[in-house]
Amino acid sequence: MKIAITGTIAAGKTTVAILFRRRGIPVFNADQYAKRSLYQGSVCYEKIREIFGEDVIGISGDIEPKKLAGIIFQDNNKRKQLNAIVHPFVLEGMQKFFATNHHQPIICAEIPLLFETGWDQYFDRTVVVTCSEEIAIQRMMEERNYTRQEAKARLSMQIPAEEQIARADKVIYNEGDLKELDSQINRWLGELRKDIRNGKNAN
């Protein structure tokens, strides 16, 4: 069974993914894999360099994520150009990950832009991790040193939480402590394993 983990920014997607890994479930991280596209020698490197120029190249010769982010958050067309290069690269990596772990009863992938890319079609279940907007803003301010305005800008660039929730098979509300979050995952994994035993791998 393939499970996609997505949700709103600062809701705790990565924490949920970590809790899945602790249970021995393999998890593909789309954002981490995407960073490989910025290294010299990657199939994406020269294409990105051609569009964004030398200003995004760091001392090491690799493309610097922060410099790239500073551009794409201000220029929607540039963001679309970057996504058109990087998304196929990440999708190929994810498919290889699935093939490598095909023997596992449950495989997960953490994909922030799951619905935007249309990749939900590759999964049997979709988990949306969410929290209130104010909690998300506070987390971004405390953990990422964003201003309130910057945090709101990041939230505005995503599919609204309400729409993500409507498209989810499972919603995890991460507004409490780690113990509460862990309990939610335990309960849901119990349901999933029951479905697998009963042969219910599809939505």
UniProtKB/TrEMBL annotation:
It catalyses: 3'-dephospho-CoA + ATP = ADP + CoA + H(+). Pathway: Cofactor biosynthesis; coenzyme A biosynthesis; CoA from (R)-pantothenate: step 5/5. GO terms for biological process: coenzyme A biosynthetic process. GO terms for molecular function: ATP binding; dephospho-CoA kinase activity. Keywords: ATP-binding, Coenzyme A biosynthesis, Cytoplasm, Kinase, Nucleotide-binding, Transferase. It holds the Pfam family CoaE. GO terms for cellular component: cytoplasm. Catalyzes the phosphorylation of the 3'-hydroxyl group of dephosphocoenzyme A to form coenzyme A. This is Dephospho-CoA kinase. It comes from Solobacterium moorei F0204. The gene is coaE.
